Amino acid sequence: MIVNTLLNIFNIFILYRFGSAIGDQLCMTAVVENLFDKHNLKVVVFSNYSEFFENNPKVYKNYSFNRIPKLLQNILLSCLRICEGDNIANFCFPVKDKSTLEQFMRSSKAEISLIEAHSLHFKKELELKQASPKIYFSDAELQRFAEIHNNLPSVFSVVQPIGKTSYTPNKEWGFHNFQKVVNSNTNISWIQTGLHNDLLLDHVVDYRGKTANLRELAYIISKAGFILSLEGLLNHVAASVGTKSFCIFSGFHLPEIATYPTTVPVVLDPQEECAPCWLLEKCPKEKKYCTEKILPEHIINTIKANL
Description:
Rossmann fold, 33% helix
């Protein structure tokens, strides 16, 4: 209580998130914008992906948990958790009575975004219905990236056919389906991003593992005409730099979880009765119908209709 009172006197808000969920921590930037614009607060950020908050004029101080020794890291996290209140908040759905984010969203079928879900417990009033993440580049940074990637096509699109299956396998659409979309749009210069050991599509420029960091990836996406990907990090990044995103949603969750002004959601309509399932384990059905029924032709036509 005393800590939050002091922070309030000095108009400071501490926003933190610890862990390996990259997209979630990028989404924190939307909350920073809201705290600054709506409440005129000096926002201090602690995260594992501090690069997302670099050059952000609405961030007062930016700290990385990764640069803090583990013992001090644990002490800091404990202090932040104990002191949570009006001016200190963890951007993470609070696990209460053993209820996880997935359980809450499955049972409630709440039509809210990931940004809203992780902020439900905040004491400050926030306006996050139309919120999007935001990455800021410095002029020097843009010049450096332009020099590094001076061989990029003048017009290109980004494709990433493989998602983060370590969280759940139920967002995947199928590598072969992405290949069919690429094959049907040979007039497009496709750049494939992702991990260096991801399967490589035919007829693409190979950018797997070739960006040095997340900000460099964001720069590549900022220069793309559009991206095509599964729901996940790339869709959040596209929103943060204002690039159109053709985003394939399975029945894992509702499209409202990450539909930004830049997002063109591709989702089965009508959706399967079991959706949203929020199942972290493999779909128990004979086929994952929520994605099996999304045909490559649907994606091809959606792209053509929106360009």
